[in-house]
């Protein structure tokens, strides 16, 4: 049931772009993205509720392909502050009561 | 306080002991979640409450784990007969309503449990 994220880790230079993917084996109701810095609590980035929905948060945006049961997080012109571990969380169709399951995470390192 | 508060921040115990971890959610938040996170892993769902009732406890690993939220605010996660494999950071999060509405979970800093 746990969504699968790829890649597991990525290293960028400041200003470069990255894409983090999240896929589920089950039909999805919603996809949620969080970022966690080392030793800190996860922080909410965005939620996507509808297939085809795209959202943006500064230079971080995401899309949700409901049919493919996938979501992607796009980081453009990365900044040092983007470093951290990114988690996607999924709520499955038929389980809209609120059980949010997280993937294993993608560790992003942005170097100067 | 303004955020989710968890106590203790660190707990070291011996195998076989009983442990309680407390979570004080943001005032007015009706939904409360417990997750467990091991090093290098994503948060693992344990249980969530909507109000006083456990809406979904399917993530509790076994009957040694139990959680309560008697008045719909503070919650306590209780672990009996602790085992070394229980060592992890236990995260609590709250939201206005369950995930499908506002979507945003506010996490506490976690309680790091070490079982020797």
How would you characterize this protein structure?
- Chain A is mainly β and 112 residues long.
- In chain A, the strands form 2 sheets. In chain A, strands 2, 4, 5, 9, 10 and 11 form a 6-stranded mixed beta sheet that branches. Chain A has a 5-stranded antiparallel beta sheet with strand order 1-3-8-7-6, with no helix packed on it.
- Chain A has no helices and 11 strands.
- The mean pLDDT of chain A is 90.
- Helices cover 0% and strands 55% of the residues of chain A.
- Chain A has one domain: Immunoglobulins (Immunoglobulin-like).
- Chain B is an all-beta fold and 116 residues long.
- Chain B has a single domain, classed as Immunoglobulin-like (Sandwich), CATH 2.60.40.
- Chain B is built from no helices and 11 strands.
- In chain B, the strands form 2 sheets. In chain B, strands 2, 4, 5, 6, 9, 10 and 11 form a 7-stranded mixed beta sheet that branches. A 4-stranded antiparallel beta sheet of chain B has the order 1-3-8-7, with no helix packed on it.
- The radius of gyration of chain B is 13 Å and the shape is globular.
- Chain B starts with a strand and ends with a strand.
- The mean pLDDT of chain B is 93.
- The chains are: A mainly beta (112), B mainly beta (116).
- At the A-B interface, strand 4, strand 5 and strand 10 of A face strand 4, strand 5 and strand 10 of B.
